[in-house]
User: Which sequence fits this backbone?
């Protein structure tokens, strides 16, 4: 039949087999866990309607740095995995594999950019991300910022967070000169309490809990099918180990994250469905290292939120306006969400099987430039609820109190518990029991 002939012509043929091509995919998958470009998932402050009859009097936020280069460990694994390049090209020439010709050509033209020479450093795209974030912030809160004597910023002691803060301040434009930048604090209980927590090092970082759950998932039929498909796609007779698969995934997502419109030819080794599977591996890791997978993470997140509560209390007591921002890392954002009880799943995240409709999705919670913003409003035209608090995650309004905003008493009920938060437990040698 003629329509069958047309169908055969329209679908790409690779070595006699039908295959989906990456190079001409009009809507490639854009969610890559903690390496997701901010532009792929962000909202926009400016599109959120103002709180009628109210004005901002205090803004508190904590944000992750922008897009960065891979760490030395990740770069080494990526470089090792990139050695597959020659095998992919040779297999295709010899008629093996199921990759599209253009995708193979793109891999052939791909070059290693010596990423190991700039480990974990902010990219130019990362700086631009923070600059744009600052510009939107400036436009949204222009009247509030114009009436402040001074704004304060503090970053962790890393080049990528310090440079991210500079990008944000530059985005504030004319008021940037009035922003006071505090020196990093070595044991920062707000922006990075986990870094110097000895107990976390012993019970979480040195634990095999996260890696065990990941290995458990990598033994499932779903992940095994992915391994088999990728091996078949590149025409290899050798088994591809999970660590090689994950390194190829990093080659895909790191290069992809450098620009929201840029593509990495290594993504051609995976289908969109398989990228969702690899995304889940990232979610498992974050869940057990930074989130609900260990009760200590809730306490460390509470340490950061203590500062938020105390600053809002001070504004209500004194009437003085205030603005403070912290530049941190995805770990801290995960811990803050956990302390607040946000994005909790039941059944919980585990390696038993992939929870498809889960709330804990790193791509949406901690992409590059991930941020949590709290805004205290004073309402002068209302007989009740003189103060109201609005929350944002990645510039999208989050309803922590059920309604659009929290009244002051609702806020105190939810946040007052953080006033007693402490990280003294970090140096205790006995095992803690958490409520």
Assistant:
């Amino acid at each position: 039949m003629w329509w069958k002939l047309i169908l055969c012509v329209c679908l790409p043929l690779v070595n006699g087999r039908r295959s989906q091509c990456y190079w001409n995919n009009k809507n490639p998958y854009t969610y890559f866990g903690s390496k997701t470009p901010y532009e792929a998932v962000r909202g926009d402050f400016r599109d959120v309607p103002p709180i009628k009859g109210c004005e901002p009097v205090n803004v508190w936020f904590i944000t992750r740095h922008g897009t960065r280069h891979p760490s030395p460990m990740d770069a080494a694994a990526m470089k090792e995995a990139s050695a597959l390049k020659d095998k992919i090209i040779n297999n295709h020439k010899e008629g093996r594999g199921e990759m599209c010709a253009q995708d193979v050509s793109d891999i052939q033209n791909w070059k290693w950019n010596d990423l190991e020479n700039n480990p974990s450093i902010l990219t130019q795209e990362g700086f631009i991300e923070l600059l744009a974030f600052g510009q939107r912030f400036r436009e949204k809160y222009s009247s509030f910022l114009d009436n402040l004597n001074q704004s304060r910023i503090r970053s962790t002691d890393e080049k990528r967070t310090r440079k991210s803060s500079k990008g944000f301040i530059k985005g504030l434009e004319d008021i940037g000169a009035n922003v006071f930048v505090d020196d990093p604090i070595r044991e920062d209980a707000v922006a990075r309490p986990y870094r110097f927590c000895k107990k976390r090092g012993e019970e979480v970082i040195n634990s095999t809990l996260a890696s065990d759950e990941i290995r458990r998932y990598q033994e499932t039929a779903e992940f095994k099918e992915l391994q088999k498909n990728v091996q078949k796609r590149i025409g290899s007779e050798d088994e591809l180990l999970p660590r090689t698969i994950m390194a190829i995934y990093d080659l895909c997502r790191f290069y992809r994250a450098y620009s929201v419109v840029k593509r990495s030819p290594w993504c051609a080794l995976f289908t969109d469905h398989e990228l969702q599977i690899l995304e889940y591996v990232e979610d498992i890791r974050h869940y057990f290292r930074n989130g609900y997978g260990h009760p200590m993470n809730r306490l460390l997140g509470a340490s950061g939120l203590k500062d938020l509560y105390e600053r809002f209390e001070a504004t209500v007591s004194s009437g003085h306006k205030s603005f403070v921002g912290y530049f941190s890392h995805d770990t801290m954002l995960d811990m803050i969400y956990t302390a607040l009880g946000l994005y909790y799943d039941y059944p919980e995240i585990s390696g038993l099987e992939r929870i498809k409709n889960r709330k804990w999705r790193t791509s949406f919670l901690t992409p590059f430039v991930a941020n949590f913003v709290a805004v205290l409003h004073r309402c002068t035209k209302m007989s009740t609820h003189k103060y109201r608090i609005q929350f944002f995650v990645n510039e999208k309004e989050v309803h922590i109190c059920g309604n659009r905003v929290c009244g002051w008493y609702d806020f105190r009920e939810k946040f007052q518990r953080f006033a007693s938060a402490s990280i003294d437990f970090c140096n205790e040698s006995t095992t803690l029991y958490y409520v």
The first helix runs from residue 2 to 10.
